[in-house]
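--- STAGE predict ---
source: upstream dedup step, 1 unique chain passed
mode: sequence only
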Amino acid sequence: MLRRPPRQQYAALCYRFDAALGLQVLLLTSRETRRWVIPKGWPMKGKKAHAVAEREAYEEAGVRGKAEKEPFGYFAYMKKRKSGVEVPVRVQVHALRVDEMLTDFPEKDSRTLDWTSCAEAALRVNEPELRALFMAFDKRMASPAPVKLRAAAGR
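--- STAGE serialize ---
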């Protein structure tokens, strides 16, 4: 049986630091099935992957911030089309530190948003690879930042 290659999407793993709660990530519900997901969307002509992730974060969750240019990771899922056909999708995820949350955004009335810990987010999402990404992100953010050594003068 012939199998099509997966379609590509780009996503934002939106995060912030709360003084009392520490690292938090943003989950939102999908419009159709109301599953917990992260903002994601299809490629946009003329936009790089991290810019698509930023755009989707704004449209779906009303957040503004800068997404990292390098992907943090990937996950796969089966997208159910309106026709009922399921299509494999590979999602490239970019970490996005949230600088601003807007009260008005395009998909405000069709989604529920929730800030939570990485561990709680991993429990809520259905995709095993996305669960693993949340746990890896929690670990990454808990480790001290790598120290950049300055070249010795005169060498």
